[in-house]
Write a structure and sequence with these properties.
By secondary structure, this protein is of the alpha/beta class. It has one domain: Divalent-metal-dependent TIM barrel enzymes (TIM Barrel), CATH 3.20.20.150. The protein contains 14 helices and ten strands. Strand 1, helix 3 and strand 2 form a beta-alpha-beta unit. Helix 1 packs across helix 13, helix 2 crosses helix 10 and helix 8 runs parallel beside helix 9. The protein binds L-rhamnitol (RNT) and zinc ion (ZN). Zinc ion binds next to loops.
């Protein structure tokens, strides 16, 4: 099957071996929070901040041991290079718990050990939601100075933990700042909260940190549930902040108006930023955070990353949470979909298609694009799984794990 596919792609002028090599090397940061419906281990408050999980599928991980076991199962079924993406709420307290303003590297030592044994880098996220100090869904932009101080301390604490991850794993740590702050109804003051957010971020980032191993990203959003009228960290705010402060912008493809596409934004940002970051998700009618599938927009996003020659300038991470299906399967399906989309993009005759565009041969361009859709892509993906020693039929393994482990919880 593979040798047939190799020949078929050769006719398009595509080298499948080179595509497989690039695919294998490109890391995808796997979000831990699909495993437990974004609950975490620190204070286990109800989820807030305008994000929500729906569903009651059995087997949710409720302890660090369970989450680590589930991640292990998922990792064993995902090919290629992976990173572990943690939220601060996944701190592991042995004994006295501390507030988020006072967390330290030692509260993540077990995660470092977990990552070390599996040769994984770690990415990180301060957690500005599902916490009593996230008062009325306001954190770094709150008018209450005490609230802001608490979250500024959290941000600074997280920067130190990110440095610790980078140092211990020997791999750079991407630390993503996202705050839920916003208002349900029309605000009377839009600039005030944004000014406070800007000043709070400036204070957090005034802490010296190693810029060669810690990449700070800032994620924008258009709205959240219950925060429909105004979002402090809007696209314009975040992009301008990232640009002016020399940090990395992060685009979540659920965070734009429904007819806007992240695939079209990538090239624009890459012209002005040395690096960009992506949260890959699937927005169904709104920012619903469904599991990523091999759909048109995911393919288009990966095509843009490849066409821009930016595989080493774009941080790829998954971000979704579905509690209505097997959570391990959700992880595997979503991350594999990202990787499949990347392979699909790598199997495009990029130079040839660009030349057709530049020569105005749009008829030919359309036909080549359509022919590619029925090229033997599946055989190349299967070859990859086989080389990586990962089973193609992961559902069988997941069902067995569900029976033996998840159902006993
Ligand atoms: C929320 C953002 C954010 C979160 C995670 C849990 O809309 O997408 O990235 O999903 O931090
Ligand atoms: Zn996100």
């Amino acid at each position: 099957m593979y040798s047939y596919a190799k020949e078929a792609y050769k006719k398009f002028g595509v080298d499948t071996e080179r595509a497989l090599e690039l695919l294998k090397r490109t890391p995808v940061s796997v979000h831990c929070w699909q495993g437990d419906d974004v609950v975490g281990f620190d204070c286990r408050e109800a989820l807030s901040g305008g994000i929500q999980t729906t569903g009651r599928y059995p087997g949710r991980a409720t302890t660090p041991e369970e989450l680590m076991a589930d991640l292990d199962k998922a990792f064993s079924l995902i090919p290629g290079k992976k990173k572990l993406n943690l939220h601060a709420s996944y701190a592991i307290f042995d004994g006295e718990p501390v507030g988020r303003d006072a967390i330290e590297p030692r509260h993540f030592a077990k995660w470092v050990e977990f990552a070390g044994e599996r040769d994984l880098g770690i990415d990180f996220n301060p957690t500005f939601f599902a916490h009593p100090m996230a008062k009325d869904n306001l954190t770094l932009s709150s008018p209450d100075a005490a609230v802001r101080r608490y979250w500024i301390a959290h941000g600074k604490a997280c920067l130190r933990i990110a440095e610790y991850f980078a140092r211990e794993t020997g791999e750079p740590c991407v630390i993503n700042f996202w705050i839920p702050d916003g208002y349900k109804d029309l605000p009377a003051d839009r600039i005030g909260p944004r000014r406070r957010f800007m000043e709070s971020l400036d204070e957090i980032l005034s802490v010296p940190y190693d810029r060669s191993s810690v990449y700070v990203t800032l994620e924008s959003k258009v709205f959240g549930i219950g925060l429909e009228s105004y979002t402090v960290g809007s696209a314009e705010f975040c992009l301008s902040y990232a640009d002016s402060r020399g940090i990395t912008p992060l685009m979540d493809n659920g965070h734009y108006h429904p007819t806007e596409t992240v695939s079209d934004k990538i090239s624009a940002l890459l012209l002005f930023h040395p690096r960009i970051a992506l949260h890959l998700t699937r927005a169904v009618r709104w920012d619903s955070d469904h599991v990523v599938l091999l759909d048109d927009e995911t393919k288009e996003i990966m095509k843009e990353v490849v066409r821009c020659g930016a595989l080493d300038r774009v941080f790829l991470a998954t971000d979704y949470f579905d509690a209505s299906i097997n959570r391990v399967s959700a992880l595997v399906t979503g991350v594999r979909s990202v990787q499949k989309a990347l392979l699909y993009a790598l199997l495009e005759p990029g130079e040839r298609m660009k030349a057709l565009q530049d020569r105005g041969e749009t008829t030919e361009l359309m036909v080549v694009g359509e022919e590619l859709k029925t090229a033997p892509f599946g055989a190349v993906w299967q070859e990859y799984l086989c080389r990586e020693g990962v089973p193609e039929d992961y559902l069988r393994e997941i069902k067995a794990y569900e029976k033996e482990v998840l159902k006993t919880r």
